[in-house]
Amino acid sequence: MILAAGRGERMRPLTDTVPKPLLEAGGRSLIARHVDALVGAGIRDIVINHAWLGARIEAALGDGADFGARIRYSPEASALETAGGIATALPLLGDDPFVVVNGDIFCDFDFRRMARIIARMRAADLLAWCVLVPNPAHNRAGDFGIDGDRLLAQAPEQLTFAGIGAYSPALFAGIAPGTRARLAPLLREAADRGRAGAEIHAGRWTDVGTPQRLAELDLELRAQ
């Protein structure tokens, strides 16, 4: 699942007319880069939720055939936050653990790892697996800790959640479809119960959250 329902307030005025995941860096939209990466890893069945200017996302990506994917959409009248959007899309996601990535990040995470990650989740009866990254300047305090391969709700040294994870549908069992709900409290609860895994991604990662960071990323990719 690619999360693409946010309004992108910090990206205004760019997002007044273009949904945030369709903003381009290096001549290609952020969301198209995710679809490419997922398909390249063998993940071809993709669900995308949307709210603000969602029709433009559907028009740009279609049914995914041009990417070698099969894309289905989960429209929201207004953004339901991360957990609410995922819970609403569960009928499209099936009964097995699934991969989720934020539509407004840029990263070089190897999604081929997800098959092994999900196997480890099943073996250890985990509800979630989160990818963490070193704290960027705009999130110095971090979000979660890590101990070996387990997620910690709190730790003396915290890292930033990358917006990449794998989740069991059971993580969202208490959320009714169409309900606004945040993901972080669910992850912290699972971590406190010893049912959330984690790993650190040391490669390229950017939260493309402001026009300045988008412009910097665009310059970097064009130079490459």
What would a concise description of this structure say?
The chain is built from 6 helices and 13 strands. It is of the alpha/beta class. It has a single domain, classed as Spore Coat Polysaccharide Biosynthesis Protein SpsA, Chain A (Alpha-Beta Complex).
Indicate the topology.
Elements: E1 2-4, E2 24-25, E3 28-29, H1 30-40, E4 45-50, H2 54-61, E5 70-75, H3 81-93, E6 98-102, E7 105-107, H4 114-124, E8 128-133, E9 145-147, E10 150-152, E11 160-167, H5 184-192, E12 196-200, E13 205-207, H6 211-223
Parallel strand pairs: 1-4, 1-6, 4-5, 8-12
Antiparallel strand pairs: 2-3, 6-11, 7-13, 8-11, 9-10
CATH class: Alpha Beta
Helix-strand makeup class: alpha/beta
Strand content: 15-25%
Q: What topology, given as strand order, has the largest sheet?
A: 5-4-1-6-11-8-12
Describe the structure.
- With 224 residues, the chain is α/β, with parallel strands linked by helices.
- The protein has one domain: Spore Coat Polysaccharide Biosynthesis Protein SpsA, Chain A, CATH 3.90.550.
- The chain has helices at residues 30-40, 54-61, 81-93, 114-124, 184-192, 211-223, and strands spanning 2-4, 24-25, 28-29, 45-50, 70-75, 98-102, 105-107, 128-133, 145-147, 150-152, 160-167, 196-200, 205-207.
- The strands form 4 sheets. A 7-stranded mixed sheet has the order 5-4-1-6-11-8-12, sandwiched between helices.
